[in-house]
Write a structure and sequence with these properties.
Elements lengths: L35 H9 L1 E5 L28 H10 L4 E7 L25 H11 L3 E7 L15 H20 L4 E7 L11 H11 L4 E4 L47 E4 L2 E4 L3 E5 L16 H12 L4 E5 L10 H14 L2
Parallel strand pairs: 1-2, 1-9, 2-3, 3-4, 4-5, 8-9
Antiparallel strand pairs: 6-7
Helix pairs in contact: 2-3, 3-4, 4-5, 6-7
């Protein structure tokens, strides 16, 4: 990807990322209040996680990247039903898992054969969800795992980082226009960073790649905050986070740490290189017990439990994402849809 050099200044909003004159990096602007796009994220408040992929057909949460693409056998991909379920439940956006730790991609990527193009059902799930989001006026976010057990299984060997990091950036550069042909990307949710020290991930390149094409997109990496004694500590639970603690993956826009809820009081101001940055918290929680569809996953949270989760997660300018995994038929489970409608009525959304 060719680097674009900006030779003129932009108006700068607190907490919002823009290129600035003679700057070599796109980074958040130091701020102790939310910026324009952070405010939009906070206002969305409530969304759906969609875990779907090769794990859906294995009764496993994490496969190791060696499972044959031929085992990915959805009968259909009813993306419109997925998005309608979220909309009818009062949600404002969805986050689609496009590549989990196994490395299997839900689009036809020119950089790997470990994708839907090598499966029986070759539907480009990424595009179908983007089309449905446009049709039903829903926001679209992207989950992408940094840890890729198919492509970069030997995470201990740092000499492999360069090639894999290029692969990662190439895939992001492939995904963004594919989605934004239909709808803006409002969020990137990255996972698996704990598998390597934070400095071995191309976080600045990731941020630059996304913000150049989608300045509105909010970017977060799971387990976002370190401690004053160890900026790369894993895990720093919400109740242990304090104002001024270092941002583990800089630059980024918001905090993650699934499946935990924010603490009370909830710190919002974190630091990097002596500067302060505002970062809201996004909670991601399962409706049942598993992230991916599993034939043994039949125990759901009650409406009372979900109401309590919602109120805790969305208090103090934070966000709740509830996970609803499509089944092997390529459809949302009936129980998820029923619970979301009941919760919507309970909350008067």
């Amino acid at each position: 990807m060719k680097k674009i050099i900006i030779s003129f200044a932009f108006i700068i909003l607190a907490g919002t990322s823009f290129p600035i004159e003679n700057s070599k990096k796109t980074v958040p602007i130091p701020a102790v209040q939310p910026g324009k796009y952070q405010l939009e994220q906070i206002k969305r408040q409530y969304g759906m996680f969609i875990h779907f992929g090769i794990n859906t057909f294995q009764d496993q949460e994490w496969t190791d990247g060696s499972v044959s693409p031929l085992t990915y056998t959805p009968r259909s991909i009813d993306a419109e039903q997925w998005i309608q379920t979220a909309k009818h439940g009062g949600m404002k956006y969805v986050i689609l898992v496009t590549k989990h730790h196994d490395g299997f991609c839900l689009w036809d990527s020119k950089y790997t054969d470990y994708d839907v193009a090598s499966a029986v059902n070759k539907t480009n799930v990424l595009v179908e969800v983007a089309k449905a989001c446009k049709k039903y006026k829903m926001g679209m976010g992207i989950y992408y795992s940094l840890w890729d057990r198919n492509r970069n299984g030997n995470t201990k060997d740092s000499t492999l980082d360069g090639a894999y990091n290029d692969y990662l950036i190439n895939q992001l550069s492939e995904i963004i226009p594919m989605v934004q042909k239909y709808t803006p990307i409002i969020e990137f949710w990255f996972d698996g960073g704990w598998e390597k020290p934070n400095y071995r991930w191309p976080v600045q390149r990731i941020y630059e790649t996304i913000k150049t094409a989608a300045p509105q997109c909010q970017i977060g990496i799971n387990w976002s905050i370190g401690t004053s004694g160890n900026p790369d500590q894993h895990m720093v639970l919400p109740q242990d986070q304090k104002d001024g603690y270092p941002i583990r993956y800089f630059p980024s826009d918001f905090r993650l740490g699934d499946p935990y809820l924010p603490s009370n009081p909830d710190p919002k101001i974190f630091s990097h290189d002596g500067k302060s940055y505002y970062m809201p918290w996004e909670s991601t929680v399962c409706m049942s017990q598993r992230w991916f569809y599993n034939t043994k996953d039949t125990t759901y949270k009650s409406v009372d439990e979900l109401e309590k989760l919602y109120k805790i997660a969305t208090a103090r300018d934070n966000i709740l994402i509830l996970n609803c995994p499509p089944n092997r038929e390529g459809k949302m489970r009936n129980k998820d849809a029923e619970l979301l409608i009941s919760l919507k009525k309970r909350l008067k959304l």
